[in-house]
Amino acid sequence: MRLLLVEDNVALADELCAGLKQLGYAVDWLVDGRDAAVQGAVEPYDLIILDLGLPGKSGMEVLQEWRANQITTPVLILTARSSWSERVDGLKAGADDYLTKPFHQEELFLRVQALLRRSHGFSNQTKIKVADLQLDEERQVAVQQGKEIILTAAEFSLLRYFMLHAGKLLSKGHLEEHLYAGELEPDSNVLEVHVSHLRRKLGKSCIETRRGQGYLFTGAPE
Amino acid sequence: MRRSISRQLTLGLTAILLLAGLLVVQTSFWLLEHGVRNYSQQRLQVQARNLLASLIRDEDEQLIVNERHHDAVFLQPFSGRYFVIELEGTHWRSRSLWDFQLLPLPQESFAQGLIPGPLGQQLLLYTGEYRYADSKIRVTVAQDYSPILASFRRAQMMGVALGFVVLLMVLLGQRWLVRKALKPLENARQQLLQLQSGQRARLEQQVPEEMQPLVEQVNRLLVHTEGRLKRSRNAVGNLGHALKTPLAVLTSLLARPELQAYPELLASLTEHLQQIEQRISREMARARLSGEALPGAYFDCEQELPSLIQLMITIHGERLQFSWQAPAQLRLPWERDDVLEMLGNVLDNAGKWARSKVQLQITQQGPYIVIHVDDDGPGIELQRREQVQQRGTRLDEQVQGHGLGLGIVRDIVDALAGTLTLNESSLGGLRVTLCLRLP
Questions:
Q1: What pLDDT does B396 receive?
Q2: What is the pLDDT along chain A (222 residues), one digit of tens a residue?
Q3: Which residue of A137, A188, B207, B349 has the fewest CB atoms within a 10 Å radius of its CB?
Q4: Between A and B, how many residue pairs show a Cβ–Cβ distance under 8 A?
Q5: CA pair distance B313, B351, nearest whole angstrom
């Protein structure tokens, strides 16, 4: 999962970046509204956390610009402006959720998880479920047929991405872009290593390989 | 009775027209009558001289009046024309005088005013003195003036009647003119009413020259008030941003693992940060209130409510069912942000406690707008409800959980001069009723 955080308060952004990385998200951080408008439109983010009071260009304008350009990435607005009219205006501008400052980190993380689930069709569910596989995002473990499976951080974020995109063909390049924010060396085999670890833990057939095309997650046990 | 321009104009014009009309009619009749009387007097003078021509000498060389020489009207009794000729002791009277005694004046002159004559006639009288063959002759001529007077009176009556008809026509015409001329004023009055009830945001600029400054000034004031509200809200928003972002940093620092070793410290910090945050939120919300200061502002239910409900669903998740009901095309004559803040807080509060559904219902009952928000949550017990409804109690201190949101709602309702009541809902939870009087 690749997230964009647009926040001009350095201290807050540091805390949030650290927390989000711990949850297995790849996070990009921007301060200026103008940069955000461009980068949000170009990079394939899975979710954007947007502060409204930004230098350069206000968050609301940035959001309107994205929506006018058919950028449908889910956006969570983070703002000190807590009046209901501003929240309604935010929603009308195309925001998917709204969190007012100050907030507890925990709450933001829950909202991010919920929004990601919702935007991938898992609405009304507190856990991601595919076939008989469940992912507990809080504890970063998978549950298969009542049995807990311990995962490393990298395996967890890969599995979460697979599960949210279950039944879709994902190319290697796409996965690398969304999970590692392009930080991998070219020709790195990190992805293949993690996929094979997951197969070992969850069963061979849960991730199919389509030669030359990519991976397809089915969640089916062996 | 209030002063009305049109009534004042009508009254004034009627008085002026009546006065002027009477003056003109009276003066013209007086002048006319004066002229006619002068003319008649001149004719009398001529007649007196003509009568001299009817004097002839008889066989005894005495002067006598030859009846054949003068007008037939002098022969007919009480014909209205009379004469008396006096010549050295003898005098002749016209036959028309019959038995009436016409008294000549002592010297040559016109009689002052009218002399009473026979049969109630009123006579103009002239006595002239002439010398005729060494004799002094006094000729007195009289003419009945009453037919002329009568015809004058008739004419006067007709004049007055005509005057009244003209006055009536002028008044009607004036009324029409005044209505037409005051139409822009009436329009402006209607528009001000619409402004007050939120059906209009500006006054029409196409008005007569005389009203242009007024309308422009009102519009300028509206723009100014709106601008000031916007600026002050912006300032409040910026201040909120400036205060809340550091608060957010502090709150998020509390999650640091280093702090978890000191639970007491953590609890105290958390509590105080929360207090600061609540206080700021409450005061910010209060500072944002426009109250009734802004005419022309309105809240369009059909336009705003769906977004607000959508927002509620986003916030509270799809486990809750939010529904709303309001008369078609209902516009509430209050500022949009105020109404949104009020409804948002009540709905959000209901959403926090509801088990499965929240209902919003807006109705108009006479001069009141009544807003019900029902939830199927646990509600508040009666004793506490009563406590809450007492004016001046701080809701956020009184009712834990139901606190801050309803506190802000109470501020707004107070600013709009309405009432907030809490009841048991038919859904099983709490019913919040807001009753606001339309301006």
A1: 47
A2: 899 999 988 999 999 999 999 888 999 999 999 999 999 999 889 999 999 888 889 899 999 999 999 999 999 998 888 788 888 988 889 999 888 888 888 889 988 998 998 888 887 677 888 888 888 888 888 888 888 888 888 889 899 999 999 888 888 888 888 887 667 777 778 888 888 888 888 888 888 888 888 898 887 765
A3: A188
A4: 105
A5: 9
Angle ∠(A52,A57,A61) on CA atoms, nearest 5? 65
Q: Which residue of A has its CA nearest to B299?
A: A85
Q: Evaluate the omega torsion of the peptide bond into residue B104 and state whether it is cis, within 30 degrees of 0.
A: no
Of B319, B307, B297, whose CA–CA distance to B229 is shortest?
B297
- Which of A15, A106, A124 minimises the CB distance to B249? A15
Backbone dihedral angles phi then psi of residue B314, each to the nearest 5 degrees:
-60, -45
ipTM score of complex: 0.77
The angle formed by the CA atoms of residues B398, B381 and B425, to the nearest 5 degrees, is 115
Helix or strand run (H / E) with residue A99: strand A97-100
Per-residue model confidence as pLDDT tens digits over B181-229: 888 888 888 888 888 777 787 888 888 888 889 889 988 988 888 888 8
Least CB-CB distance to B251: which of A80, A104, A123?
A: A104
Please answer yes or no on whether A12 and B245 come within 8 Å at the CB atom: yes
pLDDT in tens, A83-135: 888 889 888 899 998 888 888 888 899 889 989 988 888 876 778 888 888 88
Distance to chain B for A3, nearest Cα, Å: 19
Residue at token pair 């001009």: A8
How many Cα atoms within 13 Å fall on the side-chain side of residue A115? 24
Q: Are B322 and B357 in contact (CB under 8 A)?
A: yes
A124/B318 touch (CB, cutoff 8 Å), yes or no: yes
CB distance from B278 to chain A under 8 Å?
no
Q: Pick the residue from chain B with its C-alpha nearest to A10.
A: B249
pLDDT over 80 at B132, yes or no = no
CB contact under 8 A, B248 and A9: yes
pTM assigned to the model = 0.67
What does the mean pLDDT of chain B come to?
A: 84
A92 touches chain B (CB under 8 A): yes
Please give the average per-residue pLDDT across B270-296, as a whole number. Answer: 80
